């Protein structure tokens, strides 16, 4: 019986190390991707806002009435949500791990 337990424990340790490795790789890639995409979207949003703020006063007043700032915020929120969903449903992380 101890031989059976030793073999079972060895198999569990090997499976756990494989799972832990995959999880660590996925977390690392996910963190780097999230940080990079967050920085990129922040930079693009600041560029759009600075271009819109540089318009003449009457144009800025009209954009305020049309709620252009809300529309820009909705667009960037939709982009961020799409990128998150695309990252969660893709299988690129599992293809990177080689058995």
Give a written overview of the molecule.
This protein has 99 residues and is mainly α. The protein has one domain. 89% of the residues lie in helices and 0% in strands. Helix 1 packs antiparallel against helix 3. The longest helix is centred in the N-terminal third of the chain and has 52 residues. The chain starts with a helix and ends with a helix.
Brief descriptors of the model:
99 residues; mainly alpha
Percentage beta strand: under 5%
Helix content: over 70%
The oligomeric status of these chains comes to single chain
Structural class computed from helices and strand pairing: mainly alpha
Sketch the major β-sheet.
Answer: none
Shape: rod-shaped
Total of helices: 4
Q: What is the overall pLDDT average?
A: 76
Provide the gyration radius in Å.
24 Å
Strand element count: 0
Number of domains: 1
Poorly predicted ranges (pLDDT <50, ≥5 residues)? Answer: none
- Summarize the helix and strand pattern as letters: HHHH
The N- and C-terminal alpha carbons lie at a distance of: 30 Å
